[in-house]
Amino acid sequence: MPLVKLHVSDDLTPESVERLLADVRAVLIDTLSIDPTHGHAILYNSGQAERTCHPDRDGRFVFVEIALFSGRTDEVKADLFRGISDAVHRNTGVNNSDIIIYLVEADRSNWAGRGGIPFSTIELGY
């Protein structure tokens, strides 16, 4: 049940937001080989007054948080990073050098859904 949180500047058009979220979900499904009904993405935006970085960097930088079950190989995680970064760049115009990705892995026993059922007790197919 991967979850991606995208923190972006508030200057994206509704169409760009829709495409970005769809592209990110597609990367999750393809790269992690998960069921197409799984995987979530949510976008948070903030204006320039709520963001700061070094003056040489793009103030429109994007911060991506990914939470998923532990156990993926470093190769799969690297593919996920590249795919997410490419989707963000393509839909926001932000240079890859200003896209930061943070991955948090947790054991299935630390996740629950479907009414509070631990995912460690549910067969999800991956």
Description:
With 126 residues, the protein is an alpha/beta fold. It has one domain (3-121): Macrophage Migration Inhibitory Factor (2-Layer Sandwich), CATH 3.30.429.10. Helix content is 30%, strand content 27%. It is built from two helices and six strands. It has helices at residues 14-32, 74-92, and strands at residues 3-9, 40-46, 62-69, 99-106, 112-113, 117-118. It has a four-stranded mixed sheet, covered by helices on one side. Helix 1 runs antiparallel to helix 2 (74-92).
* CA-based shape: elongated
User: Spans of 5+ residues with little confidence (pLDDT < 50)?
Assistant: none
CATH superfamily annotation: Macrophage Migration Inhibitory Factor
What's the CATH architecture?
A: 2-Layer Sandwich
Main pleated sheet: 4 strands, mixed
Q: What's the helix-strand series?
A: EHEEHEEE
Mean pLDDT: 92
What proportion of the residues is helical, as a percent range? 25-40%
Structural domains: how many: 1
Strand order of the largest sheet: 2-1-3-4
Number of helices: 2
Write down the Rg: 15 Å
CA distance, first residue to last residue: 10 Å
Estimate the strand proportion.
Answer: 25-35%
Number of strands: 6
Question: Mind sketching the topology for me?
Answer:
Elements: E1 3-9, H1 14-32, E2 40-46, E3 62-69, H2 74-92, E4 99-106, E5 112-113, E6 117-118
Parallel strand pairs: 1-2, 3-4
Antiparallel strand pairs: 1-3, 5-6
